[in-house]
Write a structure and sequence with these properties.
mainly alpha; single chain; Histone Acetyltransferase, Chain A; globular
């Protein structure tokens, strides 16, 4: 998230392309039924849901999140990861 807030990405779409590349690489280099593969699929679904609900209407422009929103997203991701670890 810090790269998004520090203007490394010029648009929302640039950030999404990078995030999706991480998930694509996870899928390429890990078996679907491995712990990492399952986590990658879960995180991709989580990202796409969050992206659709948060940034789908940004029209390619960079939306600068407040630290509060960044904290909320990080907390939600941590909860999601903890849930995956206990499964």
């Amino acid at each position: 998230m810090s790269l998004l807030c520090c203007c490394r990405y010029q648009t929302c779409d640039e950030f999404a392309v990078d995030a999706r590349l991480v998930f694509d690489n996870c899928e390429t280099f890990n078996e679907d039924d491995s712990a990492v593969g399952r986590a990658g699929h879960t995180m991709r679904r989580y990202f796409e849901d969050l992206w659709q609900n948060t940034y789908a209407d940004c029209d390619g422009e960079l939306i600068m999140d407040t630290h509060e929103n960044e904290h909320e997203i990080n907390t939600s991701m941590e909860s999601n990861m903890e849930g995956m670890e206990s499964s």
